Amino acid sequence: MPSRLLARLRRARPTRRRVVAGSTVVVLLAALVGWAVWPESPPYSTTDSMITVRSGPDGAQPVELDTRFYLPDGASATRPVPAVLLAHGFGGTKRSVEDDAEDLAGLGYAVLTYTARGFGRSGGEIHLDHPDYEVRDAARLLDWLAERPDIRKDAAGDPRVGVVGGSYGGGLALLLAAQDQRVDAIVPMITWNDLARSFLPESTGREPADGVFKKGWAGIFFGSGSGTGGLGGLGGLGAPGAAPGGDSGNDGNEDSGGDGGPGAGQDPVLGAVPGAAPGGTPADPACGRFAADVCAAYLRIATTGRGDPAAVELLRRSSPAGVLDRIKAPTLLIQGAADTLFPLAEADANARGIAAGGTPVRVAWFTGGHDGGEGPQTDQDRLRFLMAQWLEHYVKGSGETPSGSFTWSRIAGFDALDRGLVATGFSVTDYPGVGGTAAESIPVAGPAQRIANPPAGNPAAISALPFGGGFSSLLDGVAGDLPGQHARFESAPLDRAVDVVGSPTVTLRAASPTGEAVLFVKLYDVDPNGPAALSNGLVAPIRLTGLPADVATATPVRVTLPAIVRRIEAGHRLRIVVATSDQGYATPVEPATYTVALAGPATEAVPGMPAGAALTGAEVSLPTVVGEPIATPAVAWRWALVGLVAAIVLGLVVVVAVLRRRHRRHDTSVHPEYADTPLVVRDLRKEYADGFVAVSRIDFEVHRGQVVGLLGPNGAGKTTTLRVLMGLTQPTTGEIHVFGHRLVPGSPVLSRIGALVEGPGFLPHLSGLENLRAYWRATGRPWADAHFEEALEIAGLGDSIHRKTKKYSHGMRQRLAIAQAMLGLPELLVLDEPTDGLDPPQIAEMRRVLRRYATDGRAVLVSSHLLAEVEQTCTHAVVVHKGQIVAAGRVEEIVGESPSTQFDVSDVDAARAVLDRLAGVRVLPETNGALVVDTNGTARSEVVAELVRAGVGVDRVMPRRRLEDAFLALVGENSRGSGDR
User: Fold this and answer.
1) Angle at CA of residue 31, ends 29 and 36, nearest 5°
2) For the purposes of burial, counting CB atoms within 10 Å of the CB of 324, is it exposed (0-12), middle (13-18) or buried (19 or more)?
């Protein structure tokens, strides 16, 4: 055994051949893998730089901004391009939006991204989009764009520019457009209208100073700006609603771009250093990089849980609400339904304020937001299309004017392939606002109920938890609404489904021994077979003052709940919940007990409600909008399946109807002059909607006994002519007559035509014979009229006729298709490239078949690029070039018009050089190396003499008269046609 093993090792010992062979294989595999994974170079270049801008109240305070500039390839002073200023979300950097910058640069825009002051490597402090700081910073960046010669200008110093941003960046876009009229269009996303109302909301219409502090979101914002954490790319275009850490690999306080090492205030290992200002100077740990006034306002509100006039004024200073009438840039507002930070009402207020000044506005809602991310892919695709369309028209200056339609979406289910969520989009012509275009009033009822406010707001219900709005339905019965801290009022089961699009409303009454109460009103969708769902964790906080101790004497208050998009199915109930606490909001520290009731008269008990005290009732008003569905791949497939079933049923009905009424159908449009002519084409023209003219003027006839070849270079118009002839497309002008009948869609005379156009199409699970039989049954013609034996003989498939067609080769399918076209022995046979896929013996047989077929009064029209086959098969030819007929007639007549001579010479290249110098003599191209010359009247002896004088030996001279020569003479050697369709 050891000796055998040793022998094997010797045989397996590496030799030079084996090493070289193995190395070659390794190198080739490595090259193949490298080629496969090597990224394509992007169609743009990028430049990172620190740009110093001057801003502040006096416009003179310098601050460095970390920027990245994307410039499309080919942009120059002679070919300037429009620009987009792309702003990131709160806590992000320029890296937060790099994917979106790359997309926009790929669309031909110069894109400037930057890290806002107070974040990442940029200097300065955070002023919350202050007009004198962040907004003026952005205006100075527009100046920088205006100085570049490769940026398109509307005027000196006025760049052609759009501004795009989400959340913090969206607020910047609105404020910049109001402050700087050079902005040509804006796309603000998931952003605010009134920052004071966003962080101090109150749903009965009271001012923000009386609002309920949104402590959860405010704490996250303040923490991300003070160096204690980051929101990642929160609200960025590419990732609206990204959770912490979602900044494309960046932690929100550090720019990891290639700018030469860690930025200011960063540790090379740990990254961002909490509490460090740019340049490494220690900052106030309580405020981080926030400006002092912003920090002080937050600390006051967070400590007391209440707003004050100074804090409200500071937040409104950074709000678009007061300057909407100054925005003249066309505005596309995108807002998310899954957003407890900036709900849909914020975009609604912005839309109404901007539109009031006559500025074009479009609104789009989607299923994502700060709590729901980007939403399903169908939503992302819709929003990117809307944005690209908006910028193309208003910034690029091309494309049609976008409509002002309102689009929205709702979750429709899961994708069957990847199990991801699928959103269905809808559209309506005019934006209806959060009030909808109509309303459904649903009665709800329940007894007056006492509820307790816990001391210090602990424990608190969990519903409007930042980033977790969707968790509320999972927490039902666990921590969503705590026992003793909430009252419930319910409806009867709905007798029909209701599509809610907008802000529901309900009227309540409340009593408190302290005269004041903070309450949270919620609308649940109660599934009888599942949990109660609170749409995206959205709640309506209210602060009521001047309350009586007895609820019976309380003044009704109308509560406007956050706008939602939800389908409430038939059989579900509505539940109004009034709670005293919520994890996301600040509530009174002192414990108290309130009484709440619906504002309405006593009513009958609702089925399923507990017995007890008299019930009060009210109506929940649900706004609705009826829109047209927006097609998506998922919807398209669903409707395709429905359509297929419907088409089968409709097809059966139509076949039966046709069979019953066939004897009553009469064609009276017979042209007497063409009654005995199989095909007459007169003045045919086909022009497409985009202006492309495939056929400009075609005029020919096909008579009985003729085999007519339709010839022409690629793009000449052959296939278009055949498509019109078979009714696959309609001509722009002109007429086609078949045996005197004008050809129109559904014309009975089509039954007298057999055709193979645009390739065969068979059911793959059926055999060849079964396909022929199925085809004939579908025609509705008598079984006796089918000529299966002749067709099978033509096909020549032998036993393969019984095999499934999915196993056929291309040539076999082609032969079966020709047999199908001849199955009824039609009087006019139309074939497009019939010899495609056939071998030489089959081509020869096809010649004989076509000649035999054009007997007994039948005719054949055949389109082919094999000129030799046409010459040997056809009796007549029609030559088409650039959509027009350049020759028509008998084949021998067309050939006779193009005399040529073949010269067998000793040196073809030298002979070609000699003949190219002879006036009037043209050397025709050949594939077999022979020299074929069109002498154009020059004597052959003179041509031979010139060759001999030049030292070229001439072995043989013979005349050449072929269809190919005539064809080349008619259409030119290098003709490419007009691009047939």
Assistant:
1) 95
2) buried
Query: Residue 966 has what pLDDT?
Result: 63
Answer yes or no: is pLDDT of 99 > 80: yes
**Total-model pTM:** 0.61
- DSSP state letters, 581-598: --TTS---SS-EEEEEEE
Backbone angles phi, psi at 700, to 5 degrees: -155, 170
| Cα gap 700→879, rounded to integer Å | 10
- The residues, any chain, with a CB within 8 Å of residue 810's CB and separated by 6 or more, are 836, 837
Highest mean pLDDT among 460-469, 501-510, 581-590: 501-510
Q: From 655, 706, 663, select the one nearest 860 (Cα to Cα).
A: 706
Task: Give the integer Cα–Cα distance in Å for 874 and 750.
Answer: 23
pLDDT, tens only, 380-428: 888 999 999 999 999 999 989 999 899 999 887 665 444 567 788 999 9
CB 570 within 8 A of CB 496: yes
Q: Compute the distance between CA of residue 896 and CA of residue 575 in angstroms, rounded to an integer.
A: 91
- Angle at 320 (CA atoms; ends 317, 322), nearest 5 degrees: 70
The position carrying tokens 């509705």 is 780
How far apart CA 627 and CA 561 sit, in angstroms, is 22
- pLDDT over 90, % of the chain: 42
What is the model's pLDDT at position 979? Answer: 40
Residue 934 CA to residue 911 CA, distance in Å, equals 14
Please say if the pLDDT value at position 766 is more than 80. Answer: yes
CA distance 792 to 573: 67
User: ∠ at Cα 71 (67, 77), nearest 5°?
Assistant: 120
d(CA 304, CA 218): 14
Omega cis (within 30) before 459: yes
Q: CA 814, 817, 819, 823: dihedral to nearest 10 degrees?
A: -170
Single-letter amino acid, residue 301: I
Distance of CA 904 to the CA centre of its chain: 61
- DSSP string covering 602-667, please? EEPPPTTSPP-SPEEEEEEEEEE---EEEP-HHHHHHHHHHHHHHHHHHHHHHHHHHHHHGGG---
CB 561 within 8 A of CB 500: no
